Amino acid sequence: MLSELDRRAGTIALEGFQKIVEGLLSDGRMPDRAATVVRAVLMACLPELDGTARGRVLLWLHSRKLLPKLDLHRLDLRGAVLGKTDLSGARLAGADLCGAQLQAADLSQADLEGCLLFGADLRDVQAAEVNLRQADLRYAQMQNISLPGADLGAADLTGANLYLADLKGADLTGTLGMAPSRPFKQGGR
After folding, report:
1. What pLDDT, on a 0 to 100 scale, did the predictor assign at position 180?
2. Taking Cα atoms as reference points, which of 117, 83, 74, 72 lies closest to residue 97?
3. Which of 93, 60, 56 lies closest to 74 in space, CA to CA?
C-alpha cells in the first residue's frame, strides 16, 4: 500500500507530465518529433505512479487521441486501473499491462499485439476485433469476455480463465494453453 507521501509524489508527477505534453501540442495535435519527448517523459514518470495513476495517464492520452502517435512498446503500465473505460481503437502494442485491471472496459479494435497481460483482469471486457496476436495472457481473468472476430494467433492463454468467453469468429491459430473442456459462448471453441 502506498503512503500518502507516495501518492502525492505520483500526483505531482502526473500533473507535471500533463503540463509537458500540453506544452508540446500544437492546435491539439502532437507534432511527430514531440512523440519521442513524450515517450521519454512517460518512461521517467510511470515508475513513480501507482496503478490508478498509470490508468489516468493512459486515459488522458487516449482522450486527446494521442495514443496512435506514441510508441508504447514495452511501456510499463503494470497494474494500471482501467476498468469500465473506453479504449476502443487504442494502440498499445507491446505494452506491459501485467496485473492491469481492465474489467468491463471496451477494447474493441484495439491493438494489443505482443502485450504482456499476465494476470490481468479482463472480466466482462468487450473486445470485438481486438488484436491480441502473440499476447501473453497467462493466468488472465477473462470470464465473460466478448472476443468476436479477435486475433488471438500465437497468444499464450495458459492458465487463463475463459469461462463463458465469446470466441465466435476469433482466430485461435497457434494459440497456447487453450483448454478444450471449458464452456464458451455462441459456438466458440
Report:
1. 58
2. 117
3. 93
pLDDT of residue 182: 56
Q: At what angle do helices 4-24 and 32-45 cross, to 10 degrees?
A: 170
How crowded is residue 102: how many other Cβ atoms within 10 Å of its Cβ? 27
Residue appearing with cell numbers 499491462 = 97
Residue 38 — φ and ψ, nearest 5°?
-60, -45
Give residue 69's identity as a one-letter amino acid code: K
- What does the buried/exposed string (b/e) look like for 10-22 if buried means 16 or more CB atoms within 10 Å of the residue's CB? beebbeebbebbe
Q: Any idea which residue has 502506498 for its cell?
A: 2
Give the pTM: 0.85
CA 2 to chain CA centroid, nearest Å:
23
CB neighbour burial string for 150-187, b if at least 16 within 10 angstroms, e if fewer:
bbbbbbbbbebbbebbbbbebbbeebeebeeeeebbee
Cell numbers placing 96: 506491459
DSSP state of 63: H
pLDDT digits over 64-110, tens only? 888 878 878 778 999 999 999 989 988 899 999 999 999 999 999 99
**Which grid cell sits at 49?**
505512479
Which grid coordinates belong to 185?
A: 459462448
Cell reading at 22: 500540453
Is the model's pLDDT at 55 over the cut of 50? yes
